[in-house]
Design brief:
The chain is α+β, with helices and mostly antiparallel strands and 570 residues long. Among the domains are: 453-494; 509-569. The chain is 18% helix and 32% strand. It contains four helices and 30 strands. A four-stranded antiparallel beta sheet has the order 1-2-3-4, with no helix packed on it. Strands 5-6-7-8 form a four-stranded antiparallel beta sheet, with no helix packed on it. β19 and β20 form a beta hairpin. The protein is elongated.
Amino acid sequence: MDVGKHQDFGTLPDKIIQLAAGESHTLALTGDGSVYSWGRGMFGRLGTGSEADELIPTRVKFELDENGGEIDQVKIVGIAAGSYHSLALADDGSVWSWGYNSYGQLGYEGENSSLPHLVEGFHDLESPDSVTDGSKMKTKPALKILSVKAGGMMSLAIDSLGALWMWGNYPQNILGGEAELLHSSSSTPVPVRDFRGHTVVKAACGNEHVVALVSACETPSGGDLICYSWGVNRQGQLGLGDKENRLSPEIINTFNIESPWAVYDVACGGSHTAVLAYKKSSSDKSESLCLTFGLGDNGQLGQGTTQSALFPKPVKDLPNNVFLISVDCGLFHTSVVSSAGDVWSWGMEKGYGLCPDATFTSTDAGDALYPRLISCTELYGPRFPEPVQIVCGAAHTILAAAGGYKLWSWGRGQSGLLGNGNTINCMDPSTVLWPPVGNHDKEEIPANGGGDKQSILKDQVDTEDKRRLSAALEEMKLLQMKLSTMEKYTSILHGSVFGKPFREQDIPITLQNTGTFDIAREWENMLESSDHAKLARLETFYRSMLADIKDKLMKKRIKEIIKECLDERR
């Protein structure tokens, strides 16, 4: 989100204005200031008050009073997601956080939080641009946070004067020492003082590195943006031409003040970086490029190889005549969307970001070294209408399009990551269940001008569809509970027999392909494919089981004999 550019969308409860994706969860911000989350609930990253997974978008409630009552005036205008934690920015400048907190990334000392928690560290802070004039303090500027960002185990914020703040496990030269002192964990927001006098417009962070777009001039709107990076650089993710860590921000020369490139967006994966830029000299500002650098072993750089890149390089095979409006990086994949609604992804599993040990029956599995065009398989044709934003998690991708009124998702479906009500992987875009059920008690956009008979009939049909959907979701939750119980039982049994946890690839081939289980055949196949160590373990396990059974039989037989003797004496 750009500094100082909060857009007023009124009360549009179904319109998505921003998305954010963590390792295994997604956040969505609507035009009325509401936040929805779905995916994995571990560590409380969904903000729902529990660690349960959510298969469909679920509203996050922001509470302050002792009785747990919701505060109506909290209107959220920005969201961000780290690996296992989440941030939200309210229109009054207050910052909220929830989820994992081992490194203080929630802005306070303490345990994880499954509910939004107000970050109080900004209350008594002054901007680093406040300076003293002799013994006299100049007028202290009012500090208000205008933007939040998160990644890995760290959190970022940009204030109204363009200063960047960081907390959690962030890179900072706090002692002026060597690179081994690179990361500092702090629950208190700390300003990055290297940019004093200039405005930080955008920032992004990966697992251990940060990239910031900073105004070249001392006025926020003056001139082009300069790109800085700092942090861990083992894979060249800083784009500085080497693999040396940086304790303080350093200019990426490819995007300095004299660069032919004008950078306007940036995203960080775990260990790679992507930026969007256009040629300053070009008369057509509607054309842009995506440049990437850092780790490339899964093709996440889109440069046709699995080699890492120390300098920014243009992604290959993207069309020249497009303007890219959004870019995001997952752990091992990257995605972009153009203003025309074309979506490209590249990296692990053909750009879908699926886990590397996932099992597929199609020939579509494998890493994509070049951008792959993702098609909308619905009535819209190959393009997605009116795209808004694309975000990437560790193994899933979410796209907001249709002007923000529709969401598509693809990738890993475990824990409800795709928001479509199930836990199945999707190789093609599927529709997220949006708008959420029960989200229509607020002001709606009139259909066809309002209250004619056709509109009323449509509303009645919609209400019935929602009722059926709600019933189906309740049934699905029950089935999910049963499935979870069976998974636990299977894991315990599998662990007892084989001495290791049950994994997806342990599912027998016949059960995967046909849905039936030939136990005799699978047992024979398993024995044939087992090595000596595995067979020895199986032999030990069954000898132990057999000994226990014989012991139980003997004890039961002894009890029976004693009972027979007692009965004869009577």
